[in-house]
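To whoever picks this up:

The nightly regression suite flagged Enoyl-CoA hydratase as changed. Nothing in the input moved, so I suspect the structure step. Input below, exactly as stored in the fixture:
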Amino acid sequence: MKYQSVPGLQAAQHGPLLRLTLDRADRRNAVDDTMLDAMIDHLAAAGTDESVRVIRVDAAGPDFCAGSDLIANNAKSDRKPRVGSTQRRLPNKANRLIPLMLETQVPIVAVVRGWAAGLGFHIALAADFCVAAADARFWEPFMARGFTPDSGAAWLLPRLIGMVRTRQLLMLGQEISGATAADWGIIHRAVPENQLECAADELVSQLGDAPTVALGLTKWLLQSGNGLDLDRHLQNEAMALELSSRSEDFREGLAAFRDKRDAKFQGR
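Regenerated output under the current build:
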């Protein structure tokens, strides 16, 4: 299998779907370095794997993710790390995972129940779509622990909900439910717990059946447009249109329109 499971992370491909499941329920799925490295490797591989058309990130047990497992990551050596160890480590760990989720042209769906704290919260933010149980709990624990946000929190949140609500989350440590997260526009949708799997399956199926090339290029346009002026963005739009209009899915879309039927995209 191309996508191997590791302790704490189950990986499996089902047709066009790559499913990554956080699997440390006894630690509320807190992410250690082994899990992080595997997630990064799998996302990078899926980005160039034409058989993968959608990625689902979910978790075993009652909680999505309690954040980074600081205890496990700091217990690897009896020696005190050198000054700057955090600054050297993060670019290859959590600070690599979040940009990779944003940049890969494969759509990502996060499915959240229970607690999503710290890095777990940010994985949900970086996914293209997050479907959560209405009673899920989103929390930024940094002020309660006496340190500063990591893994892109202070970059992601203001772009989604503005500075006022970001301060409530990061500086005051306000917890919010899945329902509130949906109302604020942080996540795609919140549903009752007993409807979560059905809602997630429907969304994953819709994305898996979509025109993959156009979908990926649209994701790229949305992400790259954050830092560009309009002229440069329009140049990127022209290139994306050139590429997508040469795809087999584009020809199928035109044929379906002509024949007055639903398109059957193959992701090519």
